[in-house]
Amino acid sequence: MKFCWSTLMVNNMDESLKFYQEIVGLPLNRRFPAGPGVEIAFLGEGETQIELICNEAIKADNVGQSISWGFEVDTLDEMTTVLKEKGIEIHSGPYQPNPHVKFFYVLDPNGLKIQFVENVKSA
What we know:
Largest sheet: 4 strands, mixed
Strand order of the largest sheet: 1-4-3-2
Order of helices and strands: EHEEEEHEEE
Structural class: alpha/beta
């Protein structure tokens, strides 16, 4: 079995695409209408993608604080600079649960926690 994608219902497709393309750095693979008032977009590289669905007839609810998507970055310092330039605040962290990894969270335009993770290289 292969994990294909994770779906997120969004209220504003353009705002969500901007976040995932400009902040997270995911390429847009395809974007298409899927019925009256419904639009779908897939982002990402490799096997697993992110699917965004915007349905004008349904207000997307808060996805909850216990769910997050994690993305590896080169350094948290570089990511912090990007976030400041884009006016995005760090939601929580940074945390370093062990000597090999550190991370922090931001919220996407839909309230989903996005984790940026740096793998710490040994000296």
